[in-house]
TrEMBL record, chain B:
This is Sn-glycerol-3-phosphate transport system permease protein UgpE. InterPro entries: MetI-like, MetI-like_sf. The chain crosses the membrane at residues 12-32, 82-103, 115-137, 157-177, 206-227, 262-280. The lineage of its organism: Bacteria, Bacillati, Actinomycetota, Actinomycetes, Micrococcales. Belongs to the binding-protein-dependent transport system permease family. It is found in: Cell membrane. Residues 78-280 form the ABC transmembrane type-1 domain. Its main location: membrane. Keywords: Cell membrane, Membrane, Transmembrane, Transmembrane helix, Transport. It is a multi-pass membrane protein.
Length: 320, 295
């Protein structure tokens, strides 16, 4: 430990009163150069990988959308203008996919964020067993979506757990539907399991938001005799403004990217009632090997995501 | 202790009831999965209409688990996923922290532009990249050292490296490390420099040992998507021996095996992650909370 007093001028290096200072300090120039070189050497691996696997594919995707590229093809890639987009916007399956993910998002965004907030409020205050409940609420999140999809595929059978429960709870009055094979119930079924899996994730983000609200505000509200509802309405809710927008946007973007559940459970069926943008992109780009058309779909998806991020910027802008 | 008023006690009991309701809703499918993995199909369906569906009673055995390993190379799938996740996590921590170190603590010219460019990649969801990326990795060359000769091949499809290398560098990991490094006093670097330490030594012996929480967060946020990876290997892996667990289970399911066996496989790939979660609960929760800032 050096106990030397630092002079008020921090810009100058103080000659340490060490008994044996190194005989020759490296000169300023080589040291500067060495810092540049080692710095760039440290940045290079990550930068090169990001360039190769994020920047280039992103630019390529943009370019490929205007060509006829196929995944494996002996023909050279040719520019075809907006052909892919014309085809895309006249494809009823694409519009159906857009409608499906919108339906999914419109239900999932409010319900999932609402349930997640309820869960966060339930375990926000310390009580005996709070850890136990938090662990249980979070359990579905560490279960992979593929496993969750297979598990619920089993529970959604005509003679599965869900229908047996409905029947038992209604004393045999309700004869449950064949959830995943009925165009009317397939999407709601996927919505339920998606919310079940992901609510715990957003509970944690709500919790972080809740814990950032100063306890003094609640004490002041209590002194003023505010009821619990009023405390929530006038302290908690405004305090969560930032968290709220963030959660809405992340859930919306995740909802638009719906894929795993559909791929495992329904393959987009029955009658396209569960197909999604990404599922269509994979179907054309991978199964039919039409990279160009899939790139066009990905580009439209990206524009949607950008639009939502822009709306978020607008909603969370600093008001002067 | 003060006597709580009756209405208050009622509301406490009510809150607890709601907590339990949510807990049951969150846990019942997982309990059902674990319990069913121990039963033959006939009993699973027999128990379905009663609470026995959630109790490990009756004809209990590990036969379903044995069947999983008999029918498919499940051990191979598990080893693949463990290997892929472990390598991605280790290399990811190294490459991303090294980059964040230089960006945060060194006077490198042009680092502002680089950092901005890295952060810009955060707005691109993986799904938008996935399809062009498949085409792109199929054009990439790869070399293999065969004895003493270097052999070049074209196309990364159906390999291990295609499941690892694209996911090592991660803008969000760099961001998290950068944030954390900024909170470590720079005077420590100066002190080490005066002692004659080079930059890499400062990184390895001063900064990284102090960055445990950031490392844990990045490790978890890299591990979970690597273990759960599905969309990507679905497109780039064909050979059975290269499959990760999530592709393995879907393939297993399509063999029309019994439900008990599917549940056994599902439990097999879920329980390790749950155990990790319970062991490192605080780190898990922190990493999710920190991923909230990604917007």
């Amino acid at each position: 430990m050096t106990t030397t007093q630092l002079p008020p001028n921090p810009g100058r290096r103080v000659a340490a009163p060490a008994p044996a200072a190194p005989p020759s300090k490296p000169h300023r120039r080589p040291r500067y150069l060495r810092e540049q070189l080692s710095g760039w050497a440290m940045i290079a691996p990550a930068a090169a990988l990001l360039l190769l696997f994020v920047f280039l594919p992103a630019i390529l995707g943009f370019g490929l959308a205007f060509t006829n590229a196929r995944l494996v093809s002996p023909r050279p890639v040719e520019f075809v203008g907006t052909d892919n987009f014309v085809r895309l916007f006249t494809d009823p399956t694409f519009w159906r996919a857009l409608l499906n993910v919108s339906y999914f998002a419109v239900v999932v965004v409010p319900v999932q964020s609402g349930l997640a907030l309820a869960m966060a409020l339930l375990i926000n205050k310390k009580f005996r067993g709070v850890n136990f409940f938090r662990t249980l609420y979070f359990l579905p999140v560490v279960t992979s979506m593929v496993v969750v999809s297979l598990l619920w595929l089993f529970m959604y059978r005509k003679d599965g757990l869900i229908n047996e429960f409905l029947s038992a709870a209604s004393f045999g009055l309700i004869d449950g539907p064949d959830w995943l094979n009925d165009p009317a119930t397939a999407m709601p079924a996927i919505i339920i399991l998606s919310i079940w899996q992901a609510a715990g994730f957003h509970m944690i983000i709500w919790l972080a938001g809740l814990q950032s609200i100063s306890g003094e505000l609640y004490e002041a509200a209590q002194l003023d005799g505010a009821s619990r509802w009023h405390q929530f309405r006038y302290v908690t809710w405004p305090g969560l403004k930032h968290t709220r927008t963030l959660i809405m946007v992340t859930i919306t973007i995740q909802a638009l990217g719906l894929f795993d559940q559909v791929s495992v459970m329904t393959q987009g069926g029955p009658l396209d009632s569960t197909t999604t943008i990404i599922f269509e992109a994979v179907r054309s780009g991978f199964k039919q090997q039409e990279t160009s058309y899939a790139s066009a779909i990905s580009l439209v998806f990206f524009v949607l995501v950008l639009l939502i991020s822009a709306v978020q910027r607008y909603l969370t802008r600093e008001k002067d | 202790m003060k006597q709580t008023p009756k209405s208050n006690r009622l509301s406490i009991a009510g809150t607890m009831a709601v907590r339990i309701l949510f807990a049951v809703a969150a846990a019942f499918p997982i309990v059902f999965m674990l319990v069913s993995s121990l039963k033959p199909d006939q009993q699973i369906f027999g128990d379905m209409s009663s609470v026995a569906a959630f109790l490990p009673i009756g004809n209990i055995s590990f036969d379903n688990y044995a069947a999983v390993f008999d029918r498919v190379p499940a051990a191979r799938f598990l080893m693949n996923s463990i290997g892929i996740s472990a390598i991605t996590v280790v290399l990811g921590i190294f490459v991303n922290s090294l980059c964040a170190f230089a960006l945060s603590r060194m006077e490198v010219r042009g680092k502002k532009i680089v950092f901005t460019a890295i952060l810009a990649t955060l707005i691109v969801p993986f799904q938008t990249l996935a399809l062009p990326l498949v085409w792109w990795v199929n054009q990439l060359p790869y070399f293999e050292l065969n004895g003493f000769s270097l052999e070049f091949s074209k196309g990364w499809l159906d390999t291990y490296q295609v499941q690892i290398i694209p996911f090592i560098a991660n803008a969000f990991s760099i961001y998290l490390f950068h944030q954390y490094f900024e909170s470590i006093p720079k005077e420590l670097d100066e002190a080490a420099r005066i002692d004659g330490a080079g930059w890499f030594k400062i990184y390895r012996q001063v900064v990284m040992p102090l960055s445990g929480p950031a490392t844990a967060t990045v490790a978890i946020l890299t591990f979970l998507p690597a273990w759960n990876s599905y969309l990507w290997p679905l497109m780039v892996v064909q050979s059975e021996e290269l499959r990760p667990v999530m592709i393995g289970i879907q393939y297993f399911f399509q063999l029309n095996v019994s439900w008990g066996e599917v549940m056994a496989y599902a439990s097999l790939i879920t329980v390790p992650v749950v155990v990790l979660f319970i062991a490192f609960q605080r780190s898990f929760v922190n990493s999710i909370a920190s991923s909230g800032v990604k917007g």
